[in-house]
Amino acid sequence: MSLATYEEAIAFLQKNKITYREKQHEAVWTANDATSLKDFNFPVIKNLFLKKKKSDQFFLCLLVGQKKVNFKSLAPQLQVSRSKLTFATEEELTSVLGLKPGYVTSLALTHDTDKRVTVVLDYDLQKVHSIGIHPNTNVATVFVKYTDLLKIIGATQHKILEVNSI
Fold first, then answer.
1. Rounded distance, CA 97 to CA 79, Å?
2. Who contacts 17 (Cβ-Cβ below 8 Å, separation ≥6)?
3. CB-based contact 164:70 (threshold 8 Å)
4. Alpha-carbon span 143 to 96, nearest angstrom
5. pLDDT tens digits, residue range 11-39?
6. Do 117 and 125 contact (CB within 8 A), yes or no?
7. pTM for the model
8. Which of 2, 69, 70, 107 is the most buried (most CB within 10 A)?
9. Which helix or strand (DSSP H or E) is residue 59 part of?
10. Residue 148: CA atoms inside 13 Å, Cβ hemisphere, count?
11. Cα distance between residue 64 and residue 151, in whole Å
């Protein structure tokens, strides 16, 4: 599979008439890295790529950045036993979404043509004024409203699951 590109992410946003604003910045590899960016005043959003062990069932989880993932409470909401919920491997991330670690984003869902990924949204994202997501690179962020995030996911025809506690 080819890697997801910045150009295809921006083209996707424009094609689907998604309103966004963009900010270039130094490379961000983790949610913690994002908190140290200069001139940024926004809540950090974590993107985690999880899977059900020994299956082709994947979960792209988006949550407000200061939260810690509680697998014990998340697993039942995904209808997966806690012992079977794990992080996807780097190889799986590349083969399913065309991404490398540090680039995880909902804008790469176009690469999951088999619809193996369920998008899991932290309920608290609805309270965030501007949601920052990578445009298939970690040296830029595009900011969208929650309703536009739903449009992005809807345009890729992926299942959405909103959860109260992650």
1. 22
2. none
3. no
4. 24
5. 999 999 999 999 887 776 566 555 555 55
6. no
7. 0.90
8. 107
9. strand 58-64
10. 20
11. 19
Rounded CA gap, 85 and 71, in Å?
A: 7
Tokens coding 108: 């790469």
**23, 141 contact by CB (below 8 A):** yes
Biggest alpha carbon distance in the chain? 43
What is the three-class DSSP state of 150?
helix
Q: Which two structure tokens, joined as six digits, stand for 63?
A: 């949550």
Please write the tens of the pLDDT for every residue from 91-134. 999 999 999 888 899 999 999 999 999 999 999 999 988 888 88
Rg (CA), the chain: 15
φ, ψ of residue 163 to 5 degrees: the values are -125, 145
Looking at the DSSP bridge assignments, the partners of residue 85 are: 52
Torsion of CA 127, 61, 41, 26, to 10 degrees: -170
The kind and range of the H/E element at 122 are: strand 117-122
